[in-house]
Input
Amino acid sequence: MSNPSSWSTPQLSSTPGPLSGTMSGGNPVFIATEQGLGKGGVYKIYVTRSGLYGGKLANQDPKASRGVMVHLGLIGWIIGGIMAKKAEQQMAEKEAVYDSVSPEDSRFMGIDPGNFRIEPSSISSIEVKSKLGLAGWSSDYDCSFLLHSTDGKKRTFFVKKGLGGEALQNALRALTMNISMK
Output
């Protein structure tokens, strides 16, 4: 990985849109957690006409550390809180690195081995769920999407609060017109 300070910086809009942010040019940006066997992680997601890009921020939501440690009593709760705070700080630092380079730049994929790019041609459909029900295991998430690829694989992402199902559907429409809301 090259020195992040030498990278060009795409400017985020100073006026917040319906998402957690937009890059210059109006491309949506939001935070989502992927769920699934052998998968997972917290990603900063960039939606552009050339694809869906995920910059991995962490292996799990920092609040999960606190939830696991609370079973060890008061000391576990305190340790979990310290771990969560440190993980949140590391995520913020990594997010700043992602914001310093365009997701379409070849250097973006080299920041973390967990980063991904999904081309629009490999997406067969997307299902957006505006209500999470029991799957919404945390109050930090308010909608999700299930991405079906042309090779039959599926990926599920839970989107952090502040977006909403309709705004998510509109953002993902740049990738495919085969999108449904449930």
